[in-house]
Design goal:
The chain has a seven-stranded mixed sheet with strand order 1-7-6-5-4-2-3, sandwiched between helices. The chain folds into two domains: 250 residues, 3-Layer(aba) Sandwich (Aspartate Aminotransferase, domain 2), CATH 3.40.640.10; 138 residues, Aspartate Aminotransferase, domain 1, CATH 3.90.1150.10. β4, α7 and β5 form a beta-alpha-beta unit. Helices cover 38% and strands 14% of the residues. By secondary structure, it is of the alpha/beta class. Bound molecules: pyridoxal-5'-phosphate. The site of pyridoxal-5'-phosphate has 16 residues, from α4 and α5. Pyridoxal-5'-phosphate (PLP) binds next to α4 and α5.
């Protein structure tokens, strides 16, 4: 049977204490026991359905983690207080001093900074590669390499990772493939394509409201259990637990994610085609000339489209700034970082979300200083939005 993330979520049965259609919020840090022995068993992970302490597991967090795990088709999930917590804990759990990582050079700025600046103090080093060059990835593997790290759709140039091919390399070397799927929930299920660990910033599309920061790690039961082991689990010991009140809110938003992804994709495809027709240099994986178009078509789940992210090249950062200020004034959306919001957000990548990446590296990865990244919103009338954008482009002298 075909795997469909939205149907997986639809079939979840999660009730509250009184038959509530939404599960109850467990507003407790600790949990009581009637028998002392049950507490001992719970500590040893031997008491099914018992909770001990909310840094380890909280029922509200478990409901959300279960929903994300079924969406990804993994055995287990664990939710974190941020996307960065999910990423850093997963990596730190796999690597020890002296180990090596092979990572896509285009990643989220915070991830790049963690790999490049932070991990060397634990003597963990990273080789950065063009993740779409499978030969280069294979050649970068060393005897001490423990994982390959990538994003399904990389930020901000929207390169597409060939997950089955990367999984092949990882399996050949007995190492882990860790994939950040933040840009492409529902559209892609990396674990189904061979990724060993899937990490998320739920802050973006999954929650979709821009009202909180949250993350998730999905993998097999063995990996998740070992991450929350009381004696040496990285998540348990570093402690980035999500607030259960937030978990409960995010869980409700997951049930509309499929509809939102479809509308984000529809609107982005519409704008990308308009930009192209207007002669603007545009990056969108839904355009046939995008270098990742065919790869994405091969690995994507049908009917969610090519995603809600677009980048256009305004050549200079000054022109990018002018356009963004104008678009904010003309109600196209907001000049803000982040993505996956119901309104359109735009920012100049080189000066914002990728500013952790040194300018020479930005050049090397083909990131123009005038690159404006759009997270296209849920606009009901995207034609009307295009007319506004077109007016702004004309005013800054970018259209004849
Ligand atoms: C935002 C983002 C992150 C970091 O997530 P936070 O929730 O802000 O900690 C990681 N990866 C990608 C691709 C992101 O867009």
């Amino acid at each position: 049977m075909k795997f469909d993330p939205a149907s997986q979520i639809q079939d979840l049965k999660q009730f509250g204490e009184f038959g509530d259609v939404n599960p109850c919020i467990t507003d407790s840090a600790t949990f009581t026991f009637m028998q002392a022995k049950t507490m001992v068993d719970t500590f040893q992970g031997k008491a099914e359905g018992c909770y001990l302490y909310s840094r380890h597991w909280n029922p509200s967090n478990k409901y959300l983690a279960d929903a994300i795990a079924v969406m990804e088709g993994t055995e287990e999930g664990w939710v974190t207080a941020s996307g960065m917590a999910a990423i850093t804990c997963a990596i730190l759990h796999i690597c020890k001093a002296g180990d090596h990582i092979v990572s896509s050079i285009t990643t989220y700025g915070g991830t790049f900074a963690f790999l490049q600046n932070y991990l060397p103090k634990f003597n963990i080093t990273t080789s950065f590669v063009d993740i779409t060059n499978i030969d280069e990835v294979g050649k970068a593997i060393q005897p001490n390499t423990k994982l390959i790290y990538t994003e399904t759709m990389t930020n901000p140039l929207l390169q597409i990772s060939d997950i089955p091919a990367l999984a092949n390399i990882a399996n050949k070397h007995g190492i882990k493939l860790v994939v950040d799927n933040t840009f492409t929930p529902m559209m892609i299920a990396p674990a189904r394509l061979g990724a060993h660990i899937v990490v998320y910033s739920l802050t973006k599309y999954v929650n979709g409201k821009n009202d909180c920061i949250a993350g998730a790690i999905c993998s097999d039961k063995e990996f998740i259990d070992s991450m929350i082991d009381v004696n040496n689990g990285t998540a348990m010991l570093l402690g980035p637990a999500l607030d259960p009140l937030r978990s409960s809110a995010i869980l409700k938003n997951i049930h509309t994610l499929h509809l939102r992804m479809r509308q984000h994709s529809y609107n982005a495809q519409f704008l990308a085609e308009k930009f192209k027709k207007a002669g603007i240099k545009v990056v969108y994986p839904g355009l046939p000339e995008h270098p990742g178009h065919d790869t994405l078509k091969r690995i994507m789940n049908p009917s969610y489209g090519f995603g809600g992210m677009i980048a256009i090249d305004l050549v200079t950062s000054k022109q990018a700034a002018e356009l963004m200020e104008l678009m904010e004034m003309e109600d196209v959306g907001y000049l803000a970082v982040s993505l996956g919001y119901f309104k359109t957000l735009f920012s100049n990548s080189g000066k914002s979300t990728s500013s952790e990446v040194p300018e020479d590296v930005q050049h090397e990865m083909g990131l123009s200083e005038g690159l404006v990244r759009f997270s296209v919103g849920l606009d009901n009338d995207i034609e009307r939005t295009w007319e506004r954008i077109e007016g702004c482009l004309r005013k800054v002298g970018f259209l004849g």
